[in-house]
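Incident review: delayed structure delivery

Summary: a single-chain prediction request sat in the queue longer than the usual turnaround. Root cause was a stuck worker, restarted by the on-call engineer. No data loss occurred. The affected request and its eventual output are reproduced below so the record is complete for anyone auditing the incident later.

Affected input:
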Amino acid sequence: MPAFPKKWLWGLIAAAFLVPLLRPALPDLVSDYRLFLVSTMMIAAIAVLGLNLLTGFNGQISLGHSAFYAVGAYTAAILMDKLDMPYYATLPIAAMVCFIVGYLFGLPALKLEGHYLALATFALALAVPQILKYKWLEELTGGVQGIVLSKPEVPFGLPLTEDQWLYYYILVVMVLLYWAANNILHSRSGRAMMAIRDQYMAADTMGIDTALYKTVTFGISAAYTGIAGALSASAIAFVAPDSFNFFLSIKFLIGLVVGGVGSLAGSVVGGIFYVLVDNSAQALSTFAKNDLGLQFDLSAYTVFGILLIILMYLMPMGVVGGVAYLVHSLRRPAVRTAAQGKEQEAALKQRA
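Output delivered after worker restart:
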């Protein structure tokens, strides 16, 4: 996949830091609700990034990342509710717990590939919400009622609302995780991960410990998704088993495909896409009924399906891959013209 221009990405990050400062000038555009919506997009982007490390860069298919998201959310929620632990201190613990769970799940999954691995992770996604409802764990997890939390308070007396602080907090975490993922992929370990994805047998023949890298990648992927779950527990201030059903895994996968498999920037785009569609489905359904005269409701999954089919026809490499390809296509004639001009200039000098 063509590389996404990094200058654009860092420019977007810088702009994201400045957005809340525009609130006095644009109070309706930069409201607390919109900042909260963007915060949920960034949380989704972290979860999609975790899935991308596993599927896009290591070639292991997972339909069970909602389970790791739930483990991270419940780890943070239980620590905050039962032990009064600060919300920021729960992130490394949730990451460690999810890494261990992912690593242990990755061990038996070593013998599974392709659709067999997808089915195993599918079973995990179905099992975890039911385990969280189990009566023996009800005192800890709250059962079907879940756990109600308090939203993070603004520290150090900063002149920010809770949603503004939450926005900055999640943005910093997302940027750090993105930077860490980029460093991992450009390291020796990252190259080994991608070698396993591209040519498993060749990587094994070259001496790469494929079993170790696959299980560790599973753990890292689960840790990223668990951090996203922990952030969601702080942001929404509520966790319940039914919030982490199998369809959440499907949304992560849709975000991955739409943004771009094997693209870090695509993970961010995928997170934005799935939250936007999820929150706009009702408005789209009302528009279709009242303005287009349709006699049925458009659910979020219907909208997801329609947009996914359209995007796969127009941009089979995902949004980021399609945009990068378009940019490279527009630059190519200019580069070719410049090269031809240099060749002609060199020929004229030789004649002279």
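Verification: The longest helix spans residues 318-351.
Action items: add queue-age alerting; document worker restart procedure.
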